[in-house]
Input
Amino acid sequence: MLLRLNGINGIVALFGKDDVIPRLVFALKSISHRAKYGYKIITEDKCIKDLSDLDKIKSNMAIGCCLSKASNDIVAIHGKVYHPEGFDLSKRLEDVFEDIERAPEILSKLDAEFTFAGIYNNSLIYGRDPLGIKPLYFSKESGTLGLASEMKALKLIGFKNIERVQPGSIHKFSMKDEKSLIFYRIKADLKLKISMDEASDKVLEILSESIRRRVKGLDRVAIGFSGGLDSSLLALITSKLAKVTLLSVYTEGSKDEYAVKSAKSLGLELDKLQVDAKQLRDRINLIQNLIESDKVMDLAIGIGINLSAKRCSEIGCDALLLGQLADELFGGYAKYVRALKDMGEEFAEDMMLKDIIEAHKNNFERDEKASSPYTEIRLPYANIDLVKYALSLPLSLKIDPLNDQRKLVLREAAIKAGLPKDIVLKRKKAFQYSSGLQKLLVSFAKG
Output
């Protein structure tokens, strides 16, 4: 029997030799900020929505869910499939659970973001999308397997050696044996011989389709907006598909005028969120707990995304779009130019590939957790088709080291989309610096 969970915003699962229900409930409540509509707990033969009824059952294997919407479905998926349209992931997982060797055939070609966990034939089966956009952690200690969307849920119930579930992987665990399979591995094994004109056309086509898929069915969306290339291109394309509100987070004295000027050029509504020292002081412990990191850069970005997600929910937007992964795909960081000059093309390309592969732990997990109490984030650049295409492009279409120019092909695509040239040519400045949040955090830490 396959039991599944749907409409959820977080997962905790346990499988051991003894009753796991009390520990599962304790762990679930540690991530209650994800549970807007309460919880579900699934065992092999029961689905319980009222936690007060848990004293009636005992089980050595169970999946707990934080519900993101009122739902009677039983589907173990945190996330969604954007393409193919109409693809029923929960139904197709039945085939995968019967034989995980089918995972590459069924899961590798999806434009999707997901983690999943299911109970099938006395086994706990779980996995994660190829880019790792949704977080999932695991630990195996003292004969018990634990899974959770946040590390704190596992730490709270005694797990110590906690690891990330590898993106693009599926795992089957039972008391008799274990089996793991990589169903998709990100790699750069083909370089196209292609002109800038052809490449920029294709980048614009794939990105536009990615955005269309992510806003389909939504009436109003918010976009985390700095006024730079990545977020402005998102805003321009998205504004043709849905009502858009731009959200700019800044501190006093930061360069928020870039966002104001770009929003005016695009003719779009801009909601400015100013952060002062008191707001930062009041929120820093909350953000640190949410994103499970105390690094200054992570805190700065996490605060910005958390405040944007909160505002997104307050004004009735259906999702928050962010420009994450554009820099890794198209050579947006200055370090890539330095690597190309100092170490050569192969070294620079390997650095960019590594950053794409590790984006789940460097960016996606932090951002998803920061937004989790309020709304879902959607990342149009983090589209597996765009990733594959970007990796196939020669570095010369991304970086010009002689003139210190970056993201060449994306800038050309933006011009073709109709983005004003002053925005297209604007130099990259990371959000944590342009917003002034990192500077404020550092000064706050110094007292």
